[in-house]
Amino acid sequence: MAANPMHQFQVYRLGPEIKLGNVDLSFTNASLFMLLSALSICLFLYFGSKQKKIVPGRLQLVTELFYNFIAKMISDTAGSKAKPYFPFIFTLFMFVLLCNMIGMLPYSFTVTSHIIVTLVMALFIFIAVTIIGFLKHGFKYLSIFVPKGVPVVLLPLITIIEIISYLSRPVSLSVRLFANMMAGHTMLKVFGSFVISLGLLGGWLPLSFSVALTGLEILVAFLQAYVFAILTCIYLNDALNLHH
Amino acid sequence: MWLKVPLIIFIFWFETLLFAAEAGMPQLDSKYWFSQSFWLILIFLALYLSLSKFFIPKIKNNLDDREKKIKDNLDEAKELSELADKKNLDYEKEISNAKKEVIKIITDSKKQLDKNIAQKKEKFEKELEKEIKKAEQEVIDLKKMSGQSINSIAEEISSKIIENITGDKLNDSSIKAAVNEVSKNKIGKYL
Are A99 and A42 in contact (CB under 8 A)? Predict the structure, then answer.
């Protein structure tokens, strides 16, 4: 069971089977860890904003740090027009971050290591950004595919490349997060099993690697959540402030 | 040697990973895709609503309150500092006023004093002059009177001396005439 490094990504049903027509909507371990992440965020924010202190305590300070971090990121990348989307990006960042972080706990399940999860999020962002772009600019939004200052000869080629790059946004966004999470966790698992198989004599080297990798993976967990959020901001910026 | 070990481990791991992927990534098993999407959307929506309606406004309120409080405090400090400056100015003005007043009082009283002294001096001098004049008058009167009284005393003494020497009494008029004659010659010497 533990020998297969991919086993940790197995999804299995918890509780009764829920079927909507032909579609299986059962509560799985993935759903459980999504729920745990969401509840942790609520708990964290609840205790972080409970006391209205002028000089904040530790938890309040961290909460406000996150708030200001996201607010600054949005205003830096997408400008003041993106302010109404702050709650969504804040939720997105916190959710991805907590899913990644909870996945770092041993025996837990990493929600974001599944392509379907990241793809649903990325597709939602892609479709929402496209709709926002067309709502704000009408058909002028299509000019995003025609960059300014390009020689006329190159224009058809550049436009095709721009369209492909635009359409590949959800893929790159989702695969980046999914692949990072999966690779990291697989690697941790592999090194973990090496510790066992090499035993007391040779197990120290993979163990030290494991420790180092855990630190790296925590960094990656934060970084990928940040990248996911900042790319969302950049896409939103394209839709809100059409300047190409 | 030590560099080779991690390399071998890495190659071994990579092969297992590839092999495992070939054997089947659970991620590509579509059995629970709908379930995962469904729960993701449900949970994310619930999280989004609770954050945007409840937690984010609360945190924002906290931050705004702090900013407002800091701003208010700064404003108050500025106001108080301005007030202190004004008070200080008033204080300095009052001090300079008081100094001016003191100088005025000093000069006034000095003037008054000088005036008083001058008045008193004048009065005293006048009185002194009067006294001097009176005394001079008295001296003159005394001179006049003393001329006569000296004559009568001289007459008396002369008649008594003559009486004692001669034993006869001379008549007054002759003595008077003699004294008068002598005193006329000599009185300027003594008076």
Answer: no
Contact B56 A86 (CB under 8 A): yes
Quick one: which of A181, A164, A61, A66 has its CA closest to A113?
A181
Nearest CA distance, B5 vs chain A (angstrom): 9
Interchain pair B59, A49: CB under 8 A: yes
For residue A139, the 8-state DSSP code is G
Q: Encode burial over A21-50: b for 16+ CB neighbours within 10 A, e otherwise.
A: eeebbbbbbbbbbbbbbbeebbebbeebbe
Contact A95, B51 (CB under 8 A): no
Which one-letter DSSP state was computed for residue A24? E
Please tell me the distance from the alpha carbon of residue A172 to that of residue B16, in angstroms, as a whole number: 25
Question: Phi, psi (5° rounding) for residue A95?
Answer: -65, -50
> pLDDT tens digit string along B91-119?
999 999 999 999 999 999 999 999 999 99
Dihedral sign from CA coordinates of A42, A46, A49, A53: negative
Q: Where are the beta strands (DSSP E) in A111-173?
A: none
**Amino acid of residue A198:** L
How far is A179 from chain B, CA to nearest CA, in Å?
A: 11
Residue ranges covered by each domain of chain A: 36-240
- Whether A66 and A44 have beta carbons less than 8 Å apart is answered as no
What is the CA A222 to chain-centroid distance, rounded?
9
Helix (H, G, I), strand (E, B) or coil at A140: helix
Q: At what angle do helices A86-103 and B56-166 cross, to 10 degrees?
A: 110
Looking up tokens 């907590």 gives A98
**Residue B78 C-alpha, separation from nearest chain A C-alpha, in angstroms:** 20
Establish how many alpha carbons lie within 13 A of residue B119's alpha carbon, considering only the half-sphere containing its beta carbon: 6
- pLDDT, tens digit (0-9, with 9 covering 90-100), for A107-140: 899 999 999 999 999 999 999 999 999 999 988 8
Residues of B in contact with A190 (CB under 8 A): 13, 16-17
Rounded to whole angstroms, the Cα distance separating A68 from B47 reads: 19
| ipTM exceeds 0.95 | no
> Looking at residue B169, what DSSP letter applies?
P
Q: Is A150 left (phi over 0), alpha (psi -120 to 50) or beta?
A: beta
- Residue B176's CB is within 10 A of a number of other CB atoms, namely 16
What value, to the nearest 5°, has the Cα angle with vertex A192 and ends A209 and B16? 100
- Rounded to the nearest 10 degrees, what angle do helices A86-103 and A29-50 cross at? 120
Phi, psi for residue A23 in degrees, rounded to 5: -95, 130
B25/A24 CB distance under 8 A = no
3-state secondary structure of B79: helix
